[in-house]
Amino acid sequence: MPENLKGSIGPEQQFKNYLTEGKFMIQKSKSLNEFFFHPRVAFPGTGERDLEWVEASGNGIVYSTSCNRRLPEKGGDFNISLITLQEGPRMMAKIEGVAPDQVVIGQKVKARISSLKGEPAIIFDIVEG
Fold this sequence. Notes:
Blueprint: H1 3-6, H2 11-20, E1 25-29, E2 34-36, E3 51-55, E4 59-68, E5 78-85, E6 90-96, E7 108-116, E8 119-126
Parallel strand pairs: 6-8
Antiparallel strand pairs: 1-2, 1-3, 4-5, 4-7, 5-6, 7-8
């Protein structure tokens, strides 16, 4: 999307548009030099509006995790984890490629763009080693 049109849509839609373009972007306050997530129009707590979009490394660490149980005919078990991104903020996401109850706090993970319920989404995979 052309830069001059990005300001005319909300931050959530901008985030989704970046995902559609294959980019995992997060916001940063220029004056505070701090990143945050979930997309907003102002920096949480301070109200700073000097925000820019920066491509995230995609690297993170599992901060917390929960295995959600459901019947196989309803899709089976899945996990929801809180990931601390290398840049500092935390985000909630699924981790795939490992049994939902085998995700461990402190594991290194790497983000990838996938689809969740027909929408672009960030999914994480465990980084071995």
